[in-house]
Amino acid sequence: MPTRSGGIAVAPAPLPTHDPPGPSRATKATVDSFPRVGYQPRSGMIVTGIAFVFLTVWLTTLLDAGTTETLVATAASCFLVGTALVINNLLRWENAENAYEKQRMSAETWNARFRKLHSESTRTGAVLSHMSDGIVMLSPKTEILLINEAAARLLAIPIDSVYLGRRLAELVRVPEIIQATRKTQRDNVDQNVSVEIVDGSIVRPVAVRISRIHDADPPHLLLVLRDETDAHRVEAIRREFIANVSHELKTPLAAIKGYAETVELAIEDDPEAAKHFIAQIDTQCLRLEDLIADMMRLARAQSGKGTLMVQTIDLEKVIRQAFSSFLPVAAAKQIELTLRPSGAPVHVLADEEAALAITQNLISNAIRHTDAGGHVSVSCRQENEGWMMAVEDDGVGIAPEFQERIFERFYRVKRARKAADGGTGIGLAIVKNLTRALGGTVSVTSSPGEGATFEVWLPKP
């Protein structure tokens, strides 16, 4: 019957047809060499002693000895027989104690080895059962000898099924894996394959490496399976990031190139138009500067605490500094920008420049997505040994399916607004990475048409 240890299923090893070398043979030899017969009761010596006493009495009677001589001879023979029996029993007990001590020490040695092997087996099982990678061990006949839960999940095999001892081809309907397994056996060369395994409604990309275990005779096979879903997602994000960066850089560069060509043609015939186009070139250059500056801030935020000067700061002071920059912007857009006093000193453990960048990006994002006549408010409250800064607006709001992605670089919920909103698409990514570097958290609560509330928690000193 298969055995289970934690999340590991292991097929039992076949019983040997002969005595294997090593511990089992040594144990058998030790047990067989134990002199059991030497420590069993010896009735023969007692019978011999009694016969010796009777022989002594018979001889004294045969020699016509007197009663006194007969008693003396009988007593002497009984004394000799008793003394011999006592000495013999003492020697037997001494030998028995020595043999027992040897057997006890041998048993303790084997017990210690067993505990060590059991401990190693338990640790190995625990490690394999908690691995995210799948592990499958196959016999030379490609029968499953060992499999962990991750492998069963990645291969879409029910973990409760009976599959130990069955051939891999009977359970796994993926031709690429079966062919790679056979090729590894045939060519004695490790194989790597990438496959897509369907598990119900989920299509999971899996990387499989098949190698031979040369320590076993004959060599066994080891399959290592890795879920490539996250790697594919990261690769997709990387491609999207490169495409977005290229697009964000290409748009102002194309505008600058077009305006420069127009200025070159109009500088003599229409100086006023040339001035207008030069102003547009300047605007696009500023946009490029803002984009590059934001990318530098994002790179600094993603580098962690190493580039930050973390100390005790007054968060409300930082918020007022950010307000001074955005009050004219909010007034021009007819948006009411307010700060709700907390009533207590808001001291947090953070980098002042990073906290200012977080606050500015959140306020800028709120103003950008709030229509004229709207409201944006900032407040702070104590929560969980820290302070929570909340930036709330009554703007367009964010649908739930977009709320996880808005913190990605260059991700925009409404692509049509990107040319007019004035943002670079990196602000919320900067907020997320800076907050994480400071040991804080960021979250958003929003519904379409009902505004959004961004909350940043920072620890107290």
UniProtKB/TrEMBL annotation:
Keywords for this protein: Kinase, Membrane, Phosphoprotein, Transferase, Transmembrane, Transmembrane helix, Two-component regulatory system
Pro residues: bias regions: 13-23
Keyword Glycoprotein part of the UniProt annotation: no
E.C. numbers: 2.7.13.3
Classification lineage: Bacteria, Pseudomonadati, Planctomycetota, Planctomycetia, Pirellulales
InterPro entries, sorted: BphY/WalK/GraS-like, HATPase_C_sf, HATPase_dom, His_kinase_dom, HisK_dim/P_dom, HisK_dim/P_sf, PAS, PAS-like_dom_sf
Location of the Histidine kinase domain: 244-461
Keyword Repeat set for record: no
Signal peptide from the UniProt entry: none
Name of this chain's protein: histidine kinase
Ranges where the record places region Disordered: 1-29
CDD domains: HATPase (cd00075), HisKA (cd00082), PAS (cd00130)
Catalysed reaction, written as an equation: ATP + protein L-histidine = ADP + protein N-phospho-L-histidine
Ranges that cross the membrane: 45-65, 71-91
Single GO MF descriptor: protein histidine kinase activity
Enzyme class: transferase
PANTHER family xref list: PHOSPHATE REGULON SENSOR PROTEIN PHOR
Gene of this entry: senX3
Pfam families attached to this UniProt entry: HATPase_c, HisKA, PAS
